[in-house]
What we know:
Layout: E1 2-4, H1 5-8, E2 12-15, E3 18-29, E4 35-42, E5 50-53, E6 68-69, H2 74-78, H3 91-105, H4 117-121, H5 132-145, E7 152-154, H6 155-158, E8 162-165, E9 168-179, E10 184-191, H7 193-196, E11 200-204, E12 208-212, E13 217-220, H8 224-228
Parallel strand pairs: 2-6, 8-13
Antiparallel strand pairs: 1-9, 2-3, 3-4, 3-7, 4-5, 8-9, 9-10, 10-11, 12-13
Amino acid sequence: MFYRLTKLQGYPIDAVDGTIGCVEDVYFDAEGWGVRYFVVRSGDWLRERDVLISPRALRRGARSGEAIATSLTREQVEKSPPVATGHPISRHYEMAHAAHYRDDFHWNDPPSRAGGSFGMLLGTAQLQPGNEVSQLEAIAEREIEAAERSHLRSGAEVIAYDIEATDGTIGTVEDFLIDDEDWRVSYLLVDKRNWVGSGHVLIPVEAVDRIDWGVGLVRLTMTRDEAARSAGYP
């Protein structure tokens, strides 16, 4: 099933013992297009604080038309690392976030096997036998140095960005289509009124060459004619 980001905004997310809050945005990996976190605005119980909830925390098959269910408790969410939303999320913050939840989701394998799922989060290779602690310390130093080079960006930020094919502008980003099977952005919904009149077209994210964040522009690898032949949005 595909969710539009704008339809997810305002959608409730529940802990096992009560409501956490409502989806405000998503942070996605601008290289792999995977949704890494939901940005959730908590209710009065947490003073309207923003918290990040990973799709890994969702209870599969537990979603309904009323809320998205997680396996978290409100206490876990309350004690999660604070985050300044509206800015790219650093790798250093991701490390702190994963460390907070690792006992619940087993993201962090024992040190001798740190090349597993948590090791992949850190962008590390399989550790070599012996001196694992020294290797982990070196990895941590590299990750801290790379903290500001994160590829995680706000989905809401990209909405209204211009879309440019190899031979000219075709329209603006109106929405993301997110597949709830793997929580990955699959398509950009493009409003092409600025190009060829009314209507919309779906552009697969594989056709995105790069995003120029400073100028608000999504550059494609396809021509305008190729974009026009992409699937239309019903």
